[in-house]
Amino acid sequence: xxxxxxxxxxxxxxxLRVWDLPTRLFHWALxxxxxxxxxSAELGVLAVHMLAGETVLILVLFRLVWxxxxxxxxxxxxxxxxxxxxxxxxxxxxAGGEAAFTLGHNPLGALMVVALLLVLLVQAGSGLFTSDDIxxxxxxxxxxxxxxxxxxxxxHRLLANGIFVLIGLHVAAVFFYLLVRKDNLIRPMLTGRKxxxxxLAATEPRRAPAALALAILATSAGLVxxxxxxxx
Length: 232
Ligand code: HEM
What we know:
- The protein is mainly alpha-helical.
- The protein has nine helices and two strands.
- The chain has a single domain, classed as Up-down Bundle (Fumarate Reductase Cytochrome B subunit).
- It starts with a helix and ends with a helix.
- Mean pLDDT is about 90; it is low at about 1-10.
- The structure holds protoporphyrin IX containing FE.
- Protoporphyrin IX containing FE (HEM) binds next to helix 2, helix 6, helix 7 and helix 8.
C-alpha cells in the first residue's frame, strides 16, 4: 500500500517549470509599463506617458512573436482553443479540484490573454497618433490627416476604460483561482515553477533559447524606434 507521502506525490505529481524567464519578465515589465502609463496620464505627465506607451508597444510586439516561436507554454497554438475545449474545461472546472489544473493558461484564461494583448496593441498604436489638441502630439501625428488623428484619439480615450475593465477582470480571476479554486497562478508567474498533478507532469514543457527572446525584443525595440524616427 502506498504511504501517505507517496499517495500525496502521486496525486500532486511533481514541480515543473511551466513559464520561461522571457514570458515572466514580459508579464511583470508589462504590468509596470501599463501602471506607469495609467498613472502618468492621470497626472498629465505626457512625456512619461508616451515613453511608457512605447514600452508597452515594444513588449506586446515581442510577446506576439514569442507566442509563435517561443517556449511551448508561451505559444498561442498551445493555449488558444475553440469553444469545444472551453466547454470541456468549464465542465472539469465545475467538478473542482485538480481536474481543472492546466500546464499553462487554461482555455478560458487564454481568451483574456489574447484580449489584453490585442487591446494593449491597439491602445499603444493609437496613442502614437493621439494629440491633446493643445501642446502635446503623439510622435506619428504629423503623418496623419486631422480626421485620422481625431478618430484614433477618440479610440485611445475610449479604450482606456476598456483596459481598466480587462485588468480588473484579469486580477479578479487570478484571485478567484487562488482563494476559491486553491490554484495559485501567481507563484508560477513569479518563479516559473508549479506543482502539477501526475497526468500533466510527465514531461517538462519545451523551452526556447533565451538568446532568441533577446533577439526578438531587440528587433521589436528597433522597429518601434525606426517608426518613431521616420516621423520626425
Ligand atoms: C497592468 C496589469 C496587468 C496586465 C496588463 C496583465 C497582463 C497579462 C497578460 C498579457 C498575461 C499573459 C501572459 C503571457 O502569456 O505572456 C497575464 C497572465 C497572468 N497574470 Fe497578469 N497582468 C496584469 C496584472 C497582473 C497582476 C496584478 C497579477 C497578480 C496579482 C497578475 C497575474 C497573472 C497571472 C498569475 C498570469 C498567468 C495566468 C495563468 O496561469 O494562466 N497579472 N497577465
